[in-house]
Write a structure and sequence with these properties.
Length: 616
């Protein structure tokens, strides 16, 4: 019932923000949950097949050196008809070793069925094949066989790589088959090779990408323009969502053998009569867990509580635990943030918060097959290793390498009635004096030896009957004595909302928000019962470094450029005329480079193409 209530709260409170795709999922899943017994009786089957999601992950290349970035794009598809869908807003991505140990874990934000991200391969891992695994929260209700899996190869240059050379009678760890499908080989724990069902090489749904270059050879730091033309089987231009990568040919699998596939070895089904264990993340990342009493582990049921992000912007969510003490909060924040979870009532003490792990702790038996390096590519790979080391040395001196700024999230209470900057007034000793002398419509009242805050109602010009909500760096605080003792020099700003504030089921008689100069809640000391920890949301998107050598200053710059991946564009689109183009510049290194273009239409038609050029 808690899962049902959560979805109904979303539908009731944010109906205007939900669109058809969300309502479709609601109808498909939760109407079946409410009437599962009738469906089971009618179908004569105790299992109900549900809406499925399917993922595909595209990387900028296939072979990496330890310490290098892996640039990637995530496509979210309808698992039944293999068309782009926009249900889940978070994709969980892991880099697994041969023992299914997660070396890297990250959360990728998706929008309009796609998302992009990057992670760095650790420098201390061994050479070999590794698996990129991707899934959504909703997909965790099904078998892990339904997750997306992709092989990448990693070379540690500080290890002897002789054991990686391809034997004369062996075959590559990635193969193609002759029936029109493209498959990547993954084995089970017994060494049996397992392949997945491709959703790409369907000859009736294929998109053809033509890649046009101005010439086959370029010099160092020269401009390259690529024109891309997408057509269907009948040579009609089509609109597509595609990615483009340009990397050294030695580290690229140019045959499209891992294109748009997932394993799907078993039919995934869940029992809706008990409800799904994992909710679809329709609006953002779900922070969920349990509120319990220490010592007895008894759940605190039907308890109002808040989730706050520490900072100079007040970002609070309010909710209530269910009859099992469980709670759910939707978080749209990206990157690392400090969070505080606590009951709204200061009378509740001796509790603890247990957060659920968002990443799956279930693993399939799949593992990558042994990685063998073609002995004919040893010299090329050595050049890739040297280039990576040179590039890392000079990376701190590059220009225009900045992460995109985080989205501007406003204070949850909107625009305040008054916002007071403390520096605009004379210096006072304590916050008590600031409230008395500077802040309008707020006063303090001492009752039973303790101070309380009171606000004047904006409309009635009389004090509110109940206490206001007091925030310090975005976190509700109920010990007003500690608030009053804060040194006024630590306060940067005070926001006042002297109207009654409604948020879901919670009603506050005004809000007073104090923002400190550091914005990190360091001015307050809390008891041990408060839950306060660093939380990592979806990854902040990074900008791929692509220097512009069109000016003399940049072209004559003496900083070496030895990029192994010249260009990466995950969010390119062909228009109605089927055309798109990209522009980038070559580096300082002579090599052969491979262009890989891969994409999908809104109808699920997919395509892959590659071309090459030389830098002399």
């Amino acid at each position: 019932m808690h899962n049902q209530k959560y979805i109904f709260d979303i539908v009731t409170y944010r109906m205007s923000a939900l669109n058809i795709r969300v309502l479709i999922l609601f109808i498909l899943v939760y109407s079946q949950q409410l009437f599962s017994q009738q469906v089971i009786n009618k179908a004569g089957d105790s299992d109900i097949r549900n809406f499925k999601e399917e993922l595909f992950v595209r990387t900028d290349r296939d072979i990496y050196i330890t310490g290098e970035p892996v640039w990637l794009k995530v496509y979210e598809l309808n698992g039944l008809i293999h068309t782009p869908c926009d249900i889940s807003k978070v994709v969980y991505l892991e880099l697994l070793d041969k023992n299914n140990f997660p070396i890297k874990q990250l959360k990728v934000k998706t929008d309009n069925s796609t998302g992009s991200s990057v992670f760095i391969i650790p420098e201390n891992i061994s050479s070999g094949n590794y698996i990129i695994r991707a899934y959504t929260s909703w997909m965790q209700n099904f078998s892990t066989d339904q997750f997306f899996y992709k092989n990448i190869s990693v070379i540690n240059p500080f290890e002897n790589i002789d054991h990686l050379k391809l034997p004369g009678d062996s075959k590559d760890s990635v193969k193609s088959v002759s029936d029109g499908l493209s498959q990547s080989i993954i084995s089970d724990e017994d060494g049996n090779q397992l392949t997945g069902n491709s959703v790409f090489k369907d000859n009736n749904k294929e998109v053809k990408y033509s890649i046009t270059l101005e010439k086959p050879e370029y010099s160092s730091r020269e401009k390259v323009k690529i024109e891309i033309f997408a057509t269907d089987k009948a040579d009609n231009p089509v609109e597509t969502d595609l990615s483009v990568s340009v990397a050294k040919s030695a580290v690229v699998n140019s045959t499209g053998l891992t294109s748009f596939y997932s394993l799907n070895l078993k039919n995934g089904i869940i029992r809706l009569d008990d409800g799904p264990e994992h909710l679809a993340e329709l609006e953002g990342h779900l922070i969920n867990g349990y509120l319990r009493l220490k010592g007895t582990d008894e759940p605190l049921t039907k308890t109002d509580l808040s989730l706050s992000f520490v900072g100079k912007t007040a970002r609070c969510r309010f909710g209530k635990t269910d009859d099992k003490g469980a709670f759910n909060f939707v978080a749209k924040e990206s990157g690392l943030n400090e969070i505080v979870i606590q009951p709204l009532s200061p009378d509740i003490t001796g509790y603890y918060v247990e957060l659920n792990q968002p990443f799956s702790n279930m693993f399939s038996k799949f593992k990558p097959v042994a990685f063998y390096l073609d002995s004919g590519k040893i010299n090329e790979i050595n050049n890739v290793i040297v280039s990576m080391q040179i590039d890392n040395i000079y990376e701190p001196y590059r220009q225009n390498i900045t992460d995109e700024s985080k989205p501007d999230i406003p204070d949850f209470y909107g625009k305040p009635e008054n916002s007071i900057k403390i520096d605009d007034y004379i210096e006072l000793t304590s916050l008590r004096e600031v409230v008395k002398e500077i802040i309008p419509n707020v006063y303090t009242l001492k009752q039973n030896g303790k101070y309380d805050f009171k606000l004047i109602n904006k409309f009635r010009y009389q004090p509110f009957e109940n206490k206001p909500l007091i925030l310090i760096d975005g976190v509700p605080v109920y010990d007003f004595e500690k608030v009053m003792s804060i040194n006024s020099k630590e306060i940067e700003r005070a926001d006042i909302i002297n109207t009654r504030y409604f948020f879901s089921e919670n009603i506050f008689d005004g809000i007073v928000s104090f923002i400190t100069r550091k914005g990190n809640l360091s001015v307050m000391e809390f008891d041990n019962s408060i839950f306060r920890q660093v939380f990592e949301g979806c990854q902040v998107q990074s900008k791929f470094y692509s220097p512009d050598y069109s000016t003399g200053i940049m072209k004559d710059n003496r900083i070496p450029d030895f990029r192994n991946t010249l260009f990466w564009k995950p969010d390119l689109h062909t228009g109605k005329n089927g055309k798109a183009e990209v522009v980038f510049f070559t580096s300082d290194e002579s090599s052969v480079y491979t262009i890989v273009v891969e994409g999908i239409t809104s109808e699920g038609k997919t395509g892959f193409s590659c071309a090459s050029f030389k830098v002399k």
